[in-house]
Write a structure and sequence with these properties.
Chain A: It comes from Marivirga salinarum. Chain A: Pfam families: NosL. Chain A: This is Nitrous oxide reductase accessory protein NosL. Chain A: InterPro entries: N2O_reductase_NosL. The complex is a heterodimer of chains A (136) and B (413). Chain A contains three helices and six strands; from the N terminus they run αββαββββα. Chain A is of the alpha+beta class. In chain A, the strands form two sheets. Chain A has a four-stranded antiparallel beta sheet. Chain B is 12% helix and 43% strand. In chain B, the strands form two sheets. Chain B has a 25-stranded parallel beta sheet that branches. Chain B has a domain of 207 residues: Single-stranded right-handed beta-helix, Pectin lyase-like (Pectate Lyase C-like, 3 Solenoid). Classes of the chains: A alpha+beta (136), B mainly beta (413).
Amino acid sequence: MRILKLLFIFSIISVLIACSIEPEPINFGSDHCIYCKMTISDPKYGAELVTDKGRIYKFDAIECMIPYLKENPKTEFSYIMVIAYDEPKKLKKVEGLHFVKNEHFKSPMGKNLAAFANQPKEFESLDWKKLKKSFN
Amino acid sequence: MTRYFLLSFLTFTLLSGSLLAKTIIVKPNESIKKAVLQASDYDTIMVKAGVYNENLISIEKPLTIIGEEGAIVDSQEGDEIFIVQSDNVTIQNMTLKNIGVSYIKDRAAIRLNRVRDVKILHNTLINTFFGIYLQKSNNCVVDGNKIIGGAEDESTAGNAIHIWQGKRIQVSNNEVSMHRDGIYFEFVDESYIANNISRNNMRYGLHFMFSNNDLYENNRFQNNGSGVAVMFSKEIEMIENEFLDNWGGASYGLLLKEISDGSIENNNFSRNTVGIYAEGANRLSIKNNLFHNNGKAMDIKGNSLDNQIIKNDFVGNTFEVLTNSKSNLNHFEGNYWSQYSGYDLNKDGIGDVPHRPVNLFAIVTDKIPAASMLLHSFLVNSLDAAERLFPQFIPEQLIDQKPKIKPNHYDQN
């Protein structure tokens, strides 16, 4: 009986945890890009969307996330996050980041697009809104 | 007259070049970098056995560098070793070790930058980040190298042979392992990949992005994250390769995404989670392949059109074909299906009733993976039989009108 009770409590806790709407770190080498099916493997690039219902979509590149956003205009997202090139592995909210298109940055899907937490001196950058507009 | 003059001038310069070329010998405690600086065009540098702790050796003239057995250059977790910036360079029989991982720079043991006619032959690369990196280079050969990465997790791994923008590159007889991708082609056209063994790489054994008119044959891709990925590319020929043991949650023998006009012939797909996964793959000829003991032999999405799937053998796969659409615009003919349960009364080797390779339960497990626990249960088998008689969910036209009674492969031998 006691075990059943414990199990019950445990399952409630796990359901509650599962329901909280939080982004989740990318597991490089095992997570897959929802858009292009590739294994996410370069810690300098990558992106993640969390819907208002808590569903998580991971991407290997910003150029995979933006078309996905445009194809799903009705979905509400609680988090729109990307990895900054100058601070690898960590996801950051897109607002306030600087986006650079330059051959120097070989992003996984060929768009040469990287995000920066700190404004890079030698490259021209776009903010998130302008970047999104530049995708057609 | 001017023509003769030009000709004799050319022969003279060529001859004098080869006659004057000398061999420089580098011994331990001497510097390869210094020898490279001192050498004249077309000289040969012989590196004697021993360990050389050097890196950033920039080669800016035509040279041949040959290592004696046991000639080792150790970068000691530091920067790149050879940076080739001249045409007509050969690097042969060297052992290069310990390239440091960097997030800022894609360091490679050997980098080729905007050159042509460079040969990288029979080298051994150990504990590299990137192994051999060709950038904007043409007419180069990478043959007989053994490249073993030090990758423990994927985020610290580069690619063993990485080619970014190039034409007419030959990659042959190499053995690559423990990298992110074994061989990576981005914007590489008219190139040839043969007789390589690519295994234990974290992402793909071989990876094409935005590359056209390439041929890969006789390679073995084993135990990688996925075997081969061909993406956003045209006219890629894939002949007589082996795609083995690519097993895991989302592992594919061959992943096709937005590709067209190629061929996939005489390959062996064995023990993969999915043999071939195709999304947006058009006008491919998929012929004479063997699909053996895969979870799903083929997962071909509805946006794949006009593919010819002919004379393949589907043996012992859990599911033969899976798709996500009610319509089918691909042609299946003359394949052998081990799940075929028809008969051949007139003994012409072709089954008298057509075969429907898509299984209802495959569609169910694709949506609800946990349902696979019910595989081979009586309920599921009877549902499946009913679905085959009165198809509701599986595409009606996805049908092999002429299923072979015996496997094509055994017919040939």
